[in-house]
Amino acid sequence: MQKKKLWLILAIVLVILLGFLVWLAPSATTGSNTTASSLAEAQSNSTSALAGNKTLSHGTAPTFVSASQQDTEINCQLSLDQSQHLIVNEQTRNCFEYFITQYGEKQIDQIKQDFTRYMQKGYKEPALSQIIDLWNRYIDYRIQLGNLKEPNLDKQDPEYYRKVFALMKDLRTQFFSLPEIEGLFGAENTYHEYTLNRMSIMADKNLTEAQKAQKLKELFAQLPEDWRENLEQLSKLEDLRKLTSDIKARGGSAEDLRQMRMNLVGADATSRLEQLDQDRGQWKSRVNDYLTQRDQILKSQMSESAQQQAIAQLRQQQFKNPQEQLRLGTFETTHDSGGKLPFAE
After folding, report:
1. CA-to-CA distance for 256 and 234, rounded, in angstroms?
2. What sections of the chain are H helices per DSSP?
3. Is the peptide bond before 62 cis (omega within 30 degrees of 0)?
4. Which of 96, 106, 207, 280 can pair with 110 through a Cys bridge, CB separation 3.0 to 4.6 Å?
5. What letters, b where the CB count within 10 A reaches 16 and e where it falls short, cover 62-99?
């Protein structure tokens, strides 16, 4: 259940990370149509992740959902304490976002009315008033998010995203208490801080790739255990690709590459990567040798049938494995068309 919840959170925050901030509305005073359209845009890519949760606290109520959500169940697992007060957490936010994603099919006023009616069916005081109050503030927060001024910085600069994130956090304090902020945005903040710090390390020109790898490893170790479990493969693969590319781009040595890998993934993984490099190098050499000899056959004075027979014999001699021969076909086609051979880097 914890893993499922984390992937749901990741589905939401990765959408935000890709654009980092979708400007929801040009103005809070442009009317309900503009507001509704802006809210939908911000979460349109996360609709499938939210709607995919088919757990329901109070039963399905088709009148409360939009046409595109008819095959889903309302994602509102709100938690209450023993005194029947709302416990604000990521489930609360998921519930709000489920209703917000209906927009485009419904006007914002209709969504707000539907949400209130749905909550009145399932909750009583004092929780009901808390839920409705928080919901209204959450809608206002989402609208005001669209009025934030975009930083006048290059979007390739990590500082751009750090300033955007700071603006978002500052805005939240205007609408929510600290416990509410932690409940609604705590998991997202953890991911954003981690991502921003990764970006800063990668952009630091005073660090070598090996030093960056060491800092990235230390940064990753600071994440909560459940986050590390879910992000480990994704983060390490991405960091390896980027740092390897940087080393190759500047003409770095094999020792530079090895030290970076040792710092980032450790000795065992480095040995496996070096073996993979060796295997790839051997494959590249074999393919290039084969294509050179194949070109010589094709340029010879032999008849076409004799050429094809000679090429088939050459292929069989150098690539006895059927799977290798299948891979080889792609390289032949690409080579003949003048394209870049698809060797793995």
Report:
1. 23
2. 2-19, 32-43, 47-51, 90-100, 108-122, 127-145, 158-173, 178-203, 209-221, 225-249, 254-265, 267-298, 304-318, 322-336
3. no
4. 106
5. eebbbeebeebbbbbebeeeeeeebebbbbbbbbbbbb
Q: 157-171 as b/e, with b when 16 or more CB fall inside 10 Å?
A: ebebbbbbbebbeee
- Phi, psi (deg, nearest 5) at residue 105: -95, -25
177 secondary structure, DSSP code: -
Structure tokens at 115: 């949400």
Q: Residue 143 in contact with residue 24, Cβ under 8 Å?
A: yes
In which residue are the tokens 């991502």 written? Answer: 195
State mean pLDDT over 1-23: 45
The count of other CB atoms within 10 Å of the CB of residue 186 is: 15
Looking at the DSSP bridge assignments, the partners of residue 265 are none
Q: What is the pLDDT of residues 103-160, one digit of tens each?
A: 878 888 888 998 999 999 989 999 999 999 999 999 999 989 888 888 888 888 888 9
The reported pTM is 0.65
CA–CA–CA angle 220, 224, 228 (5° rounding): 50
Q: Which residue is listed with tokens 């654009």?
A: 19
Q: Within a 10 A sphere around the Cβ of 119, how many other Cβ atoms?
A: 21
Integer Cα distance of 97 and 86 in angstroms: 17
